[in-house]
């Protein structure tokens, strides 16, 4: 299944969204297949024909939005072939191996935000500098800085971002005596994630039997940490996750949620999580932009109209997820690949991808285009997601990234799951996480 951008437990098994003019029935799972074939028809031929290869993971949405076909129409001598790896955790080690060997790279490579700092610090010389090709000011201010070296080299153009919201089941909220109007729900959690847990305790008092306030405390943890500028590393590149206020806050809230049985304790995107959405046993999900497609796809038509979306808890915006496309210097067609990257990440193309699969643009120019600005989700009671996500995106703080952000997030999430599922004490779970992280990052 072509889905995951699984850094920090993030998976996109089917991120297709129903924007204006689309319905939940249009949601599709993309298969594990690739647009590429087994031939070696790459590079430029004697007849002037060029084949550009794009290697990525999860669901970038280019094929779904018809962009490769459109590019061929605009440039008849160029054919674009996509090679997709379903799981980013499989894709990234292969990318590093190819970078180390200097062979096997595609003309364009996707890079996950949780990996971008390591690539910037250790492999920047392997990629073409895009600083003279793209206007970095077109992106939300913090996005392109993540892909920029200390010397000003820009190694990747931003694709999507994951501005945070809160998805909630209005049917379950109503049965538990909670407000269902999105503005009223926003007021209930306006004080932050602490208010979110208080709302969970209210829900628990009258919760329908067999239901839980949230799906996963580890998801809430990621949302909490993502709303802070300082997370796992400091500006010097030193891991500071053990003393990070945002990590401590997220961990304590996750431990509280687990101890009070506010969470169903589900590892997101696994089969039990999918089943819970289908059966309607989960009342809330921390919802970066790409998550709504997960819910609508997995909850299915039977739950259409039972979900809504409101702003995330608190006043601090958060981002969870996002990627880049980069051009390796070793490619046979670096100039043409660079032009393709510029085109794919322009506002019109990012808006087309948003309409096709729901991943939110990082290019600000897309926010005023109709397919983004007027976007609503019929599945979620016509929630005005274009407005919700754009407002959030504009105020997300610039985050200090570290080389092993993904490893740290994944490891902590695993131990939070252990608190939920196995009853592991917070102290023991934290010790296990810290030991595993220290071994992994050195």
Global mean pLDDT: 89
Radius of gyration: 21 Å
Flag low-confidence runs. 1-41
Number of DSSP strand runs: 10
Major sheet details = 10 strands, mixed
Number of helices: 16
Secondary structure class reads alpha/beta
List keywords for this structure.
442 residues, 10 strands
Descriptive report:
The protein has 442 residues and is α/β, with parallel strands linked by helices. 38% of the residues lie in helices and 14% in strands. Strands 1, 2, 3, 4, 5, 6, 7, 8, 9 and 10 form a 10-stranded mixed β-sheet that branches. Strand 2, helix 1 (67-74) and strand 3 (78-85) form a beta-alpha-beta unit. Helix 7 runs antiparallel to helix 8. The longest helix has 18 residues, at 405-422.
Quick overview:
The chain is an alpha/beta fold. It has helices at 67-74, 88-101, 113-122, 170-175, 182-188, 193-205, 217-226, 245-259, 271-279, 291-299, 334-344, 347-357, 370-373, 385-393, 405-422, 426-441, and strands at residues 43-44, 50-57, 78-85, 108-112, 157-169, 212-214, 282-288, 307-311, 319-326, 360-361. It starts with 42 loop residues before the first strand and ends with a helix.
Question: Layout of SSEs?
Answer:
Blueprint: E1 43-44, E2 50-57, H1 67-74, E3 78-85, H2 88-101, E4 108-112, H3 113-122, E5 157-169, H4 170-175, H5 182-188, H6 193-205, E6 212-214, H7 217-226, H8 245-259, H9 271-279, E7 282-288, H10 291-299, E8 307-311, E9 319-326, H11 334-344, H12 347-357, E10 360-361, H13 370-373, H14 385-393, H15 405-422, H16 426-441
Parallel strand pairs: 2-3, 2-4, 6-7
Antiparallel strand pairs: 1-2, 4-9, 5-7, 5-8, 5-9, 5-10
Helix pairs in contact: 7-8, 7-15, 15-16
């Amino acid at each position: 299944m072509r889905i995951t951008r699984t850094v920090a437990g993030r998976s996109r098994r089917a991120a297709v969204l129903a924007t204006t003019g689309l319905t939940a029935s249009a949601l599709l799972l993309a298969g594990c297949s690739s647009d590429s074939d087994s031939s070696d028809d790459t590079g430029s031929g004697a007849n002037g024909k060029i084949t550009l290869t794009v290697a990525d993971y999860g669901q970038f949405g280019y094929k779904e939005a018809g962009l490769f076909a459109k590019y061929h129409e605009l440039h008849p001598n160029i054919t674009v072939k996509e090679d997709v790896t379903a799981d980013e955790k499989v894709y990234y080690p292969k990318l590093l191996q190819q970078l180390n060997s200097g062979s096997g790279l595609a003309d364009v490579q996707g890079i996950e935000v949780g990996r971008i700092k390591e690539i910037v610090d250790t492999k920047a010389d392997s990629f073409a500098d895009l600083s003279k090709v793209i206007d970095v000011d077109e992106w939300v201010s913090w996005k392109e800085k993540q892909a920029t070296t200390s010397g000003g080299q820009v190694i990747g153009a931003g694709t999507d971002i994951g501005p945070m919201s809160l998805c909630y089941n209005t049917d379950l909220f109503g049965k538990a005596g909670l407000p269902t109007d999105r503005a009223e729900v926003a007021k209930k959690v306006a004080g932050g994630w602490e208010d979110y847990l208080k709302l969970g305790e209210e829900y628990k008092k009258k919760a329908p039997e067999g239901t839980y306030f949230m799906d996963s405390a580890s998801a809430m943890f990621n949302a909490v940490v993502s709303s802070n500028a300082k997370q796992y590393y400091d500006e010097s590149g030193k891991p500071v996750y053990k003393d990070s206020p945002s990590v401590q806050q997220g961990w304590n809230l996750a431990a509280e949620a687990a101890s009070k049985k506010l969470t169903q304790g589900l590892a997101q995107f696994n089969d039990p999580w999918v089943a819970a959405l289908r059966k309607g046993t989960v009342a809330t999900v921390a919802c970066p932009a790409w998550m709504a497609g997960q819910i609508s796809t997995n909850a299915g038509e039977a739950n259409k109209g039972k979900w809504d979306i409101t702003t995330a808890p608190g006043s601090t915006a958060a981002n969870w997820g996002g990627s880049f496309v980069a051009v390796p210097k070793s490619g046979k067609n670096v100039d043409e690949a660079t032009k393709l990257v510029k085109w794919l990440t322009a506002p019109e193309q990012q808006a087309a991808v948003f309409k096709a699969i729901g991943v939110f643009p990082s290019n600000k120019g897309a926010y005023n285009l109709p397919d983004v600005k007027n976007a609503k989700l019929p599945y979620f009671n016509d929630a005005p997601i274009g407005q919700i996500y754009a407002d959030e995106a504009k105020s997300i703080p610039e985050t200090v990234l570290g080389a092993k952000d993904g490893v740290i997030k994944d490891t902590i999430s695993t131990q939070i799951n252990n608190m939920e599922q196995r009853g592991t004490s917070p102290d023991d779970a934290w010790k296990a996480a810290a030991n595993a992280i220290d071994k992994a990052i050195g």
